[in-house]
Amino acid sequence: xxxxxxxxxxxxxxxxxxxxxxxxxxxxxxxxxxxxxxxxxxxxxxxxxxxxxxxxxxxxxxxxxxxxxxxxxxxxxxxxxxxxxxxxxxxxxxxxxxxxxxxxxxxxxxxxxxxxxxxxxxxxxxxxxxxxxxxxxxxxxxxxxxxxxxxxxxxxxxxxxxxxxxxxxxxxxxxxxxxxxxxxxxxxxxxxxxxxxxxxxxxxxxxxxxxxxxxxxxxxxxxxxxxxxxxxxxxxxxxxxxxxxxxxxxxxxxxxxxxxxxxxxxxxxxxxxxxxxxxxxxxxxxxxxxxxxxxxxxxxxxxxxxxxxxxxxxxxxxxxxxxxxxxxxxxxxxxxxxxxxxxxxxxxxxxxxxxxxxxxxxxxxxxxxxxxxxxxxxxxxxxxxxxxxxxxxxxxxxxxxxxxxxxxxxxxxxxxxxxxxxxxxxxxxxxxxxxxxxxxxxxxxxxxxxxxxxxxxxxxxxxxxxxxxxxxxxxxxxxxxxxxxxxxxxxxxxxxxxxxxxxxxxxxxxxxxxxxxxxxxxxxxxxxxxxxxxxxxxxxxxxxxxxxxxxxxxxxxxxxxxxxxxxxxxxxxxxxxxxxxxxxxxxxxxxxxxxxxxxxxxxxxxxxxxxxxxxxxxxxxxxxxxxxxxxxxxxxxxxxxxxxxxxxxxxxxxxxxxxxxxxxxxxxxxxxxxxxxxxxxxxxxxxxxxxxxx
Length: 694
Fold this sequence. Notes:
Layout: E1 2-11, E2 14-17, E3 21-22, E4 31-35, H1 42-54, H2 70-75, E5 81-92, E6 95-107, E7 112-114, E8 118-124, E9 130-131, H3 137-144, E10 154-156, H4 169-175, H5 182-202, H6 208-255, H7 257-294, H8 301-316, H9 326-335, H10 349-356, H11 364-420, H12 425-470, H13 476-522, E11 528-531, E12 537-541, E13 548-549, H14 554-581, E14 591-595, H15 603-616, E15 619-624, H16 626-629, H17 632-637, E16 641-651, E17 659-663, E18 666-673, E19 680-685
Parallel strand pairs: 4-15, 4-16, 10-14, 14-15, 16-18
Antiparallel strand pairs: 1-2, 1-3, 1-5, 5-6, 6-7, 6-8, 8-9, 11-12, 12-13, 16-19, 17-18
């Protein structure tokens, strides 16, 4: 999971729609730093990630039920809906994910009530096509980064030491087993239990009253399909209008001499991107066909080797001798005459000599079969080699196309940024209009994909209802079959649980070893981290030859907890390597988003963590106050910054004291006087070269 961007609307202190916060994800500059004073919205921003993905909040998130911005509530009319949402984009396994969690509140005469949240998800591959995933969004997110592990990737640094508290051991025990493959076994057990329950339900007959209810459901679903289909027609028309509007705006931009060269270059790059995306789809289809047609050949290496061994044994045993066949000798004995005319009557010396040839001759049928099978085995080996060559070739082509598309996208982004910042107001306004059109097209496309999936789901549900209506009751034979299946399902559940127990025992030792290695890198103390069989995380010392528990300080517990989190990330990488061996995509990139991680640490620990964490993490987002940033943290992290932002808090307090922070030679406001009676937070991007993007 490589985080790409986050946007908020009326979420806590963030009034209206915020600018898009683009997050750094490069190799050397993988760190995004967000500066803000206490109370400016750093914790809200951290919880925006966890709310969007899991609808969960950190322990320090006060009044979690009050999500909607107070100014938006105050400005709303009675009965008017106020939307609060967080939109998050990330990349994973070569796909791009867009998630939007939203809730709507309604202002009444006396209060403000908020309804249930809604989670939407769209997915796009390298070819740029967006679609609605076949699984539920929560399930997709859980497979990428399970909810039980989210606190180790999105956390409040000032309370991170809670990981080592004794009452957390059960939670740790469950969460740290995710990357064993235990989560796959757990899902298998869960699915088997569901299958068992389904099989048990099959034993129940369907009554007439239930059929009437099913018919009512069928009618309602058909009405829903008609309604969504009509909306799809409206979206299609709106998309056509927006595309026309986009072409007209681009044409106007090309007519401006100052922007002509950049706009022509952009048009050329967009054509190249579309062409490369088409080639990417073609390569993927070629790879799928190769795996489907000849993938099995790579699994037959041991079988073909065993066949060769059998053939050698037959030859050494004289059962595949070439020369006179047993069938030819039998024909001579039956005719009682040799081809040279010698009499071969039974009992004669000549008959006995020829009969002895039967022990030495081989069967022509066996030999022919052996020769034919050998040729087929040779062909299988050739196909296996050819298969790997084609796979390597197509994977290399896919990798090259991905890089090319990525480079084109970077250049396109640069061109758009130059046009946005152009001194010519007409050029910058036209580019902003293009940005708005692109955003509108994207949102319409996402809605179109979501509606298409809704139609598919409703039709599937409709088919299921039709089958239930047809089926009146189960006969005795089906009941018997269901009972046998229930017994087999229960046996499979028990066996899988045994496998899970064996894996869990081995994992704890591996995790403890990695925690110890990372702890030594960060801490200057001689203490040794230990993970008990109950997953209690503690520190011990071994100065006298005996392991004795250490009463760790808050700072040491923070270092221990950070070491634990880094170890989890390391396990993710190892898990990803195993996936790549199975020709599965790379999943080794995972983020760390931490709020105020240096509060209780001494100078040496702060410096070591500031240096180590960006190296251990694939992607790092740090939310810091001005005092936490200055000094050794700034020295160690500045060269790793890829993106940087400032949260400016507008205080409604009449005599508020304004505050600033200096970054890259530029001064940015941390606290300012609000121009109205409301308090709110604005987001500003830092440009260390001297310009502000928004």
